[in-house]
Amino acid sequence: MFEKKFACRLTELRRKKGVSTRRMSLELGKSICYISDIEARHRLPSLKNFMLICDYLGITPREYFDEGNSDPVILRKLIKYQKMLNPKQLTHILAIVMDMLRIQ
Length: 104
What we know:
- The chain is mostly helical.
- The protein is built from seven helices and no strands.
- The protein has helices at 2-17, 21-27, 34-39, 47-57, 61-65, 72-82, 87-100.
- It is elongated, with a radius of gyration of 17 Å.
- It starts with a helix and ends with a helix.
- The relative contact order is 0.10.
- The mean pLDDT is 94.
């Protein structure tokens, strides 16, 4: 079960980055089929390679396993910039988000 979730998450994050399995494998310095083998559940990366994968994707290991976070890079930027807003601006942003989600 773990392998399936790991593989699906890698596929999701790789696609969000807009790279092929081949390109990602080669840019990580691995064989052409390295990432596709992980996504096909034929192998799991070592801890060292997992860290390289996270670095390549621009995320932390924690973000990798946060399945509720569909786009960790964008969410991290959003949080970074929201910290620069004053309370009034934050209230406006919250109202916009709640309206988009149709939350009362």
